Amino acid sequence: VEPTKLGLVVEGSLVDGLKARLQGATTVEDLRVGKFVKIEGEQHDFFCLITDVQLGATDQRVLQDPPGPADDFLRSVLAGTTTFGAMKVQPMLMLPKGGDGLDGKLEPEPPRTVPAHFSSVFEADEDDFEQVFGKESERFFAMGKPLDMEVDVCLDLTRFVQRSNGVFGKSGTGKSFLTRLLLCGVIKSDIAVNLIFDMHSEYGHGSNSEDGRLVKGLQDLFGPLKVSVLGLDAGADAGRNRRADRLITIGLNEIEVEDVALLQDELRLNATAVETANLLVDAYRTAWIQKLLDMDSDELKEFAERSGAHAGALAALKRKLGEIRRLDFVRDQVTGGGVEEMIAQLERGKHIVLEFGQHSRPLPYMLVANVITRRIHRRWSDLAEAHRQSQGQQPAPRPLMITIEEAHKFLNQRAAAQTIFGTIAREMRKFQVTLLVVDQRPSGIDDEVLSQIGTRITCQLNDDRDIEAVFSGVSGANHLKSVLATLDSRQQAMILGHASRMPVVIRTRPYDQAFYDILGPWGGRGGNGRVAESRQVEQARTYHEIFRQDE
Amino acid sequence: MDNGEPIGELIETSTTELVAQACELGMAPAFGSLVRVGAPNGDIFGLVYAVRTGGVDPGAQAVLRGHGGVRDAAIYRENPDLNAVLRTSFSALVVGFCDNGALRQYLPPHPAPLHWSVYECPESQLAEFTHRLDYLRSILTASAAPIDELAAANLRLARQARPFEPTFALRAGRELARLLADDYGRLSSILRRIGA
After folding, report:
1. Neighbours of A235 (CB within 10 A)
2. d(Cα A152, Cα A144) in Å, to the nearest integer?
3. Does B193 touch chain A (CB under 8 A)?
């Protein structure tokens, strides 16, 4: 099939993009902003995005005396001659002609020149998509299809897990859906182990999507041997989380000043709280919260005198930290508490979904996520250090991807400087730990962290500051803003960054039985990719054997 | 190429224009139609842009002949001598020629010889000639003729001659739009004359 020729390049520059005049039967209404097109130059093919569609006229007088509504003939003659459609296209990649793309030696590279005058602009075809985005395989995961074509758009998972990533979009645009899709891809290809802090308990088990459909959770899809769902131990009296495989408790002894500092807003701490807390830690080490909470007013006064703390501040801190003790999964003294076990599982490559169930408020969510992540951070840096010092004798730690929601609470300018998540976002790539931040307010995230985000998958955003934030640190962002602004509010997303060779707008792939089937024996029938399949079948068999014994 | 009887004979010739006298009084080709002169080096084509009828003697001025109930055609019946003293002549703009069998839509190297016969082109020939529309530029740049009217009249005839190309008017219109890119007023007036 001959590719559809859309127009001819008439002017432009590398910096400002090219302008192409529409040709033949192409009308402006055939074009969509964000469409992927190919320009055939003399020595290179250029892969480009349409960033604007324009109307032009060679003679201003036409515009002053336009043909009347009945004057169809005049209008049709003028169309394409005196009045014409044009598109702005931004070159995103160039490929020397005759290159084989992914399989050959020639890879598409960022454009350093532009095609010559009157080069033809074509609609990109299936081969072009494969050349740029890869073909679905262990390494490439199909995220969806472009808006106007039936071709897979894939994400390079190997590159995806190399950096921290972001899923952005206002509420109700399908962030959790996209996140679930991404997690499925990463789990399926076994390219990194996942820890998901699941605020609204929607990833582990099946849940109702916003349109009321029941969608399968990760454990439903990959089986309990591969994905473990953990809950918070709310004690005997509170409604126990029956869906969880195991429950986790957090000890007051495990909470550090840093964790409390993160909760500054949630606990309404004043500026001196951190200093006061540090004095307590100096005196009581890990028991600092417990000691503080157990102090009566005399003891408070006495400690203040002894340590130089402000008595009022100390009393206020005690009052506010009481809220942590009242969380029903928090115990005074915990050793292990399931967290160690959980980290060991992650090390062995088991994916973990930590459901917050009834604790879906920011306070418990941030507290638990920070406490656990801090421990993981320590463990992974140790492993990486051991690997480095043994010069490869010790295995490198498994790549780990931590998914956090409401990320702006962890990664805002103040928190990012002092919490573990800020550290991970900035430098943990070296230790094989990356973040998948899910957020509806990217403008709330620290600029330095945002600039480290590798791949941004963005659903509809309206706020200008949020849009600005998504593109921070992206060159040529101005052209892309117009594309992002036109996204539909459902099931459309723009992929931009490290794991995708060029920005692209997709209709996200349906999360349905056909998709479950692809994921392997747990999702449905058959798998994709022989290695993955045999591994999964083996795991499935073991699982069945265990359960038969149980019965 | 022969199309039967000639419709006129060249009485004045130049590189850009043909002037012929019609063989019969009042029997000139239609305004805008294509005519052909079978010149020795190959046919030369022209578009009829002016037709006039007057006295054979250049100085003679026609006088009133009608009277009583004798009007219009009856006048000719009553005055058979009119056919001898009046003549019809027509002018055509040279728009192309045949060069060893190939049709060229630009001016021929030599003008058509004087007193050569002029033939009216049938529709088939007009259809063949209008396969290309380069000659429209020659029309639009001519100075003598009512050129906008001429272009419109010719394209109306050509459209009739090309029923197999329903988009002919559109193609011709676009060609005109390119040629008149800087004169929208003229363009739209010609297009309105062609109609849809």
Report:
1. 14
2. 6
3. no
- For residue B158, name the pLDDT band (cuts at 50, 70, 90): very high
Element (H, E) at A8: strand A5-13
Residues 161-190 (B) with a CB less than 8 A from some CB of A: 169-170, 173-174, 176-178, 181-185, 187-188
- Give the model confidence (pLDDT) of A374-417 as tens digits: 999 999 999 988 998 988 888 888 999 999 998 888 888 888 88
Burial bucket for residue A277 (CB in 10 Å: 0-12, 13-18, 19+)? buried
Report which of B124, B89, B122, B109 is spatially closest to residue B39, judged by C-alpha positions.
B109
Phi/psi for A453 (5° steps) reads -70, 125
Q: State the burial class of residue A43 (Cβ atoms within 10 Å of its Cβ: 0-12, 13-18, 19+).
A: exposed
Q: What is the pTM of this model?
A: 0.76
Residue A138, by phi and psi: left (phi above 0), alpha (psi -120 to 50) or beta? alpha
Given a cut of 80, whether residue A106 has pLDDT beyond it is: no
User: Which residues from chain B sit within 8 angstroms of residue A81, using beta carbons?
Assistant: 174, 177-178, 181
Q: Give chain A's end-to-end CA distance (angstroms, integer).
A: 59
Query: Is there a contact between B173 and A76 if contact means CB atoms under 8 Å apart?
Result: yes
Structure tokens, A283 = 């005196």
Percent of chain B with pLDDT over 70: 98
**Contact assessment for residue A523 and residue A513, using Cβ atoms and an 8 Å cutoff:** no
For B177, which of A71, A72, A78 is closest by C-beta distance? A78
Three-point CA angle A160, A165, A168, nearest 5°: 130
- How far away is chain A from the Cα of B100, in angstroms, using its nearest Cα? 34
- Using one digit for the tens of pLDDT, what is the confidence trace for A256-288? 888 888 888 888 888 888 889 999 999 998 889
Q: How many helices (H) and strands (E) does chain B have?
A: 7, 7
The Cβ of residue B123 has, within 10 Å, a number of other Cβ atoms equal to: 15
**A166 DSSP β-pair partners:** A437, A456
> Does the CB of A58 have a partner CB in chain B at under 8 Å?
yes
For chain B, what percentages of helix, strand and coil (3-state, to nearest 5) are there?
30, 25, 40
pLDDT digits (tens, 9 = 90+) for A29-38: 888 888 889 9
Residues above pLDDT 70, as percent of chain A: 90
Within an 8 Å CB–CB cutoff, is residue B196 touching chain A? yes
- Quote the CA–CA distance of B133 and B113 in Å, as a whole number: 26
Q: How, if at all, do strands A504-508 and A140-146 pair?
A: antiparallel
| Alpha carbon separation from A528 to A156, A200, A226, A511 (Å, rounded) | 17, 30, 17, 16
Angle in degrees, CA B45, B48, B52, rounded to 5: 140
Q: Which two tokens stand for residue A180?
A: 């679930």
β-sheet bridge partners, residue B44: B37, B97
pLDDT of residue B47: 95
Q: Residue B179 has which token pair?
A: 């040629």
**Percent helix, percent strand, percent coil in chain A, to nearest 5:** 40, 25, 40
**Do the chains contact at A81 and B192, CB–CB below 8 Å?**
no
Q: How far apart are CA A392 and CA A334, in angstroms?
A: 35
Q: Is the pLDDT of residue A522 over 60?
A: no
User: For residue B187, which residues of chain A lie inside 8 Å, CB to CB?
Assistant: 82
Whether pLDDT at A102 is above 70: no
Measure the CA–CA gap between A263 and B170, rounded to whole angstroms: 71
Strands A36-40 and A44-57: antiparallel
